[in-house]
Design goal:
This protein has eight helices and ten strands. It folds into two domains: 132 residues, no CATH class; 137 residues, 3-Layer(aba) Sandwich (Trna Endonuclease, Chain: A, domain 1). 28% of the residues are buried. α5 crosses α8. 40% of the residues lie in helices and 27% in strands. Strands 1, 2, 3, 4 and 5 form a five-stranded antiparallel sheet that branches. It has 281 residues and is of the alpha+beta class. The chain is elongated.
Length: 281
C-alpha cells in the first residue's frame, strides 16, 4: 500500500549572498509510517572543486550533526519522545532540528509523492539529486610519474638517465626505496612530487607525509641529498595550498633542493655537470 511522503534537498551554501550551493543530502518524511531519515554525503572534494576553500573537517562534522539530529527526530516519531503536534511535512521537522537562519546548511522547498518503500525512495532521491552530480566535474590531476616525465626528457637529452639507479636509504626504524639516484661523494636522490591534485587538503597532506618520511630517514648511516621535482597545481585556486606545502617541505632537515616546473633544463645541466665532474675525478 502506498503512503504519502515529502522530501527536501539538503544544500551546502558557500555564499549566502551570492546563492552558490551544492546538493549534499536528502531528507524524507512519511507521516503515516512515522518515518524520517536522511542520507548525507561526507565527500567534500567536489565542494573544493567548486569553491576556493572548504574546511573538510568542519563539513564532515556538520553532516554528522545533522544525521544525529535526524536520528533524534526518528526516535521522537517512534514514541520515545513527543513532538508538540505531529509534523505535517519534512521541512517542519528539519527546521525543528536546525533552526532556519543564514548558516551553510539550507533546505530546498519540499517535494513529495507516494511510495510503498520510503527507505528505497530516499536512496533513489539521493542518487537523483546528489550522487549523480558528485563525479560530473572532472578535475584533471597528475601523478608523480607524469611529473617525472616532464623532468626526464631534458635529462635524457643530456644522456645522464643511464647513471640514475634505484637505491634504498635505510634508517634506524624506517627505509625507503628511491627510483632515481646517483652517488657523488654522497647519495643524491631525485623524487618527483605531483601537487597537481584535486583539493587543498590533499596537497597539504601529501607534503606532511613527505616531511614525516624525510625526518624518519635522517638517522640513516648513508648521507644523502634530496632533489624534489615539484609538479605545481594546474588549478590557480590551489596555488596557495601549494605554497603551504612547499613551506612544509622546507622543514625537512639536511641537504635538499627544490626544482620547479620551468627549471627542468637548468636541473639537467646541473646533474650532468655533477656526474661528469665526479666521473673525471
Amino acid at each position: 500500500m502506498k503512503t504519502a511522503y515529502t522530501f527536501s534537498v539538503i544544500r551546502y551554501v558557500h555564499d549566502v549572498v551570492g546563492g552558490e550551493f551544492v546538493n549534499v543530502g536528502i531528507a524524507l518524511y512519511a507521516p503515516k509510517e512515522n518515518y524520517i531519515d536522511a542520507v548525507c554525503t561526507k565527500k567534500y572534494g567536489r565542494l573544493s572543486g567548486l569553491f576556493v576553500e572548504v574546511d573538510g573537517v568542519q563539513f564532515r562534522t556538520m553532516m554528522n550533526f545533522l544525521e544525529i539530529r535526524i536520528d533524534e527526530a526518528r526516535r521522537t516519531l517512534e514514541g520515545e519522545l513527543q513532538f508538540d503536534g505531529k509534523p505535517k511535512d519534512v521541512l517542519e521537522i528539519l527546521y525543528r532540528v536546525i533552526p532556519k537562519d543564514d548558516s551553510s546548511l539550507q533546505f530546498s522547498t519540499s517535494g513529495g509523492g507516494l511510495t510503498t518503500n520510503p527507505a528505497k525512495t530516499l536512496d533513489e532521491l539521493y542518487e537523483r539529486y546528489v550522487e549523480r552530480y558528485s563525479e560530473k566535474k572532472s578535475i584533471v590531476t597528475r601523478n608523480d610519474e607524469e611529473v617525472w616525465k616532464v623532468f626526464r626528457k631534458p635529462l635524457e637529452e643530456k644522456r645522464v638517465t643511464r647513471y640514475l639507479k634505484p637505491h634504498t636509504i635505510v634508517a634506524n626504524d624506517y627505509e625507503y626505496a628511491f627510483d632515481h639516484t646517483w652517488k657523488n661523494n654522497q647519495w643524491r636522490v631525485i623524487e618527483p612530487l605531483s601537487f597537481d591534485l584535486e583539493n587543498a587538503d590533499s596537497i597539504k597532506e601529501k607534503a606532511a607525509r613527505w616531511l614525516g618520511r624525510a625526518v624518519a630517514l635522517q638517522s640513516a648511516v648513508e648521507k644523502f641529498k634530496f632533489y624534489f621535482l615539484m609538479g605545481k597545481p594546474s588549478q590557480e585556486r590551489l596555488m596557495q595550498a601549494y605554497t603551504k606545502a612547499e613551506n612544509l617541505l622546507h622543514g625537512i632537515p639536511g641537504a635538499k633542493e627544490f626544482i620547479r616546473e620551468g627549471e627542468e633544463e637548468a636541473f639537467a645541466v646541473e646533474v650532468q655537470s655533477e656526474i661528469e665532474h665526479h666521473s673525471g675525478e
